[in-house]
Each structure stands twice: as C-alpha cells, then as structure tokens.
C-alpha cells in the first residue's frame, strides 16, 4: 500500500502552470524536446544521503515526515539546471519533506515558462548547501524525457512517487498526450533508482 507522508503530495492542478493545456502542436523554437523514454531501473543523480558539503555518503535513518515549506529548501532560491533561453523557470510542483536520512529536502518539478507549446518538466531533489542555500543534490527526471509531471508525493517508506504524461511522437497533438506513467524513485546506493509503470491515459 502506498501511504503519503503527511501532506507531502503535490498536484499540478493546484499550481496552475502556464503553457500546458492550450490546443496546438507548436513548440517554442529553438528548443525541441525529443521523446526519450529510458528503460526502467536507471539510477539517477546523486542522493540526498550524500553530504552537500563533502559529498560523503551518510547512512539513511529515521522515518520520512512532512515539513513546512519554511523548514525545507526553497525552490525559488535554487538555481535549477534548465536551459530556458530568454524564458523564466517555472516551479510547477514542490513537496517539502524530511527523507529517510533525516535531512530536510524538497522535491521539485519545474519547466521553462514559455508562452506557447508544452514545455516538459524536470524533477529535482533539493537540499541545503553551504550557508543554508538551496541546491540541487539529484536530478530525478531530465527535461529531455519530454514528460509533464502532474503529481509528486513522498511515501512513508522514503520512496518518491509521481505521475507523468507524454507523447509517443512529434505528430501527437500537445493537448492530447498518449503516454501515461506512474513513476517511483527509490534509494539505491548513492543515488536513486527510477521505475516506470504504464498507467491509463486520462482525458485532458
């Protein structure tokens, strides 16, 4: 059974990101996002279980728990590694939580805030760096995957879950995604292991 930790669930509809639901197939040049659905079980990024200051692995311990946003890294103060050209970075979802290693973190889905097209999301894990400044400690999902993330949650066992939709080809209208995936990130060694499960495609 999947149990969310307190209120550590975010749904895209609560934040109203722009540039997602309008009709049309246009994408903003020169950024073209190719479909690149990688295989299951890819280990992504570095874990929050590595010390931001030294990179030294820290044993996981404790039980994940919800955190107030003020006690976790603020995504608006972090420099997210997105190549948006002249467009700003838009945070679509954020979930603050204290994960199994005991440190506060924030899971963030973000995209380029273009006026047209459907910019894909990337998902990052933030921790506190030097001077308590928020920094990216893991890239959980790259924007080149061409997925739109609609839900993120942290389970009581420390796994991060999400739901995303995408497109099987350039010919699929941007307002009608034909790929639907349930995503689960679990700790593996010094990183995170991503598994994907096909899910029913919901109407947009």
Strand content: 35-45%
- Intertermini distance: 27 Å
Task: Provide the helix percentage.
Answer: under 10%
Number of strand elements = 11
What is the H/E order?
EEEEEEEEEEE
Please state the average pLDDT score.
76
Low-confidence stretches: 14-61
How many separate helices? 0
Shape: globular
- Our Rg estimate from Cα atoms comes to 16 Å
Largest sheet: 6 strands, antiparallel
Strand order of the largest sheet: 1-8-9-10-11-2
Q: What is the SS-derived class?
A: mainly beta
In short:
The protein is 0% helix and 39% strand. It has strands at residues 4-11, 42-44, 65-66, 89-98, 104-112, 122-128, 134-141, 148-155, 160-166, 179-188, 191-198. The strands form two sheets. It has a six-stranded antiparallel sheet, with no helix packed on it. It has a five-stranded antiparallel sheet with strand order 3-4-5-6-7, with no helix packed on it.
